[in-house]
Amino acid sequence: MPSVSAPDCAIAIIGAGVVGCAIAWSLAERGCGPIYVLEAEAGEGRGISSRNSQVVHAGLYYSPGSRKALSCVEGMRALWRWVAERGVAHRRTGKLVVATRSELEGQLEVLADNAGRSGAVVEAISLARARELEPHLPSTITAALWSPWSGIVDAHGLVRSLIVAAEGTGRAELLCSTRVDRVEAVRGGFRLQTSRGPLVAERLINAAGFGAPALARELGIERTLYPARGDYFRLRRHPAWGRLIYPVKEPGSPSLGVHLTLELDGRCRLGPDLEWLDPDAPIDYDPARGEAKAAAFLGAARRLLGPEHVDDDALVYDGCGVRPKLVGPGEPLADFEILESPAGAWHLLGIESPGLTAALALAREVAEATL
Question: What domains lie within the chain, and their CATH numbers?
Answer without folding.
Answer: 9-51+156-224+333-370 (3.50.50.60), 95-148+226-325 (3.30.9.10)
